[in-house]
Amino acid sequence: MYRIVTKQKLNPVIDLISIQAPALARKAKPGQFVVIRVDEVGERIPLTLADWDEKEGTVTLVAMQVGTSTYKLACLNVGDYILNLVGPLGLPSDIERFGNVVCVAGGVGAAPVFPIARALKQAGNRIISILGARNKDLLFWQERLQSVSDELIVTTDDGSYARKGVVTEPLKGVLERGARIDRVVAIGPAIMMKFCSSTTKPFGVPTFVSLNSIMVDGTGMCGCCRVSVGGVTKFACVDGPDFDGHEVDWDLLFKRQQIYLAEEKHSLELWKSCHCQSA
Ligand SMILES: Cc1cc2nc3c(=O)[nH]c(=O)nc-3n(C[C@H](O)[C@H](O)[C@H](O)COP(=O)(O)OP(=O)(O)OC[C@H]3O[C@@H](n4cnc5c(N)ncnc54)[C@H](O)[C@@H]3O)c2cc1C
Ligand code: FES
């Protein structure tokens, strides 16, 4: 059982929780994730390690409420327990001195991007971060990203804050400035990662995305997270989650993400009919 020691609402649909998990906090690396099960009838769901504190023995997760398990998670408070927490899982992100790196975060992607941008900054890179959300209310961690970036560009789709538009527009602008960009890291909804990859491709800039395929065991055994990268089948949980965005078969990813849509909808309706308030 893993005790929740901090809970913070980052915006109407995204919650931060820190959990007491000292062994995990000692081993965590940027880009890795955990698989959690909220309770004994819960599904196993993957969440990225958004931060960790070795001294305090805690790990921080940031989850967007999209279905039964993430709604359940949002109902928990400080002092409550999560039944299972497995990790750190997945290969850590590549952290080297690349030069000029653009880190693009879409929506809840700000959470996984932050530790990667921080580590890249510590490794001596110049970091340009681009943070986007649908509207002002959904933006979070602007200050955190600012603190590890040499430059931060913020966008909202509806123009309710900062620059109006989607993240690919400033990404293209940065690439067109002429200064060499050595690497792009893009994390957010799959569609956003796909378009970031197609934006960087003509410029030949290596682009890494974190694939959010459906996962079950998270250890390479079930095959559920199967993706195709460069025509080769990979398991996102053990071969990733970071992959070369120019080589990902995005259509296959989109198709596989939809497999359980009807069941997920039914499960959420059922859960909401029994528990309602804090979700
Ligand atoms: C490596 C990895 C890291 C992730 N990190 C984060 C994170 O830090 N914050 C965050 O908010 N979300 C993250 N996600 C997505 C998160 O796992 C899903 O939002 C969550 O599983 C939804 O579960 P649910 O029961 O609430 O919703 P459901 O109603 O079950 O599903 C809603 C949608 O979430 C996705 N999903 C459902 N089950 C899974 C599953 N077992 N594995 C992966 N995706 C699933 C599907 O696209 C589905 O259509 C990550 C996914 C992966 C693969
Ligand atoms: S989640 Fe089972 S193989 Fe990746």
Question: Can you tell me about this structure?
Answer:
- The protein contains nine helices and 16 strands.
- The protein has 279 residues and is α/β, with parallel strands linked by helices.
- The strands form three sheets. A seven-stranded antiparallel sheet has the order 6-1-2-5-4-3-7. The protein has a seven-stranded mixed sheet with strand order 11-10-9-8-12-13-16, sandwiched between helices. The chain has a two-stranded antiparallel ribbon with strand order 14-15.
- Helix 5 (168-176) packs parallel to helix 6.
- The longest helix has 14 residues, at 261-274.
- It starts with a strand and ends in a 5-residue tail after the last helix.
- The model has no long low-confidence stretch (mean pLDDT 94).
- It binds flavin-adenine dinucleotide and FE2/S2 (inorganic) cluster.
- FE2/S2 (inorganic) cluster is lined by residues 215-218, 220-225, 235, 237.
- Residues 215-218, 220-225, 235, 237 line the site of FE2/S2 (inorganic) cluster.
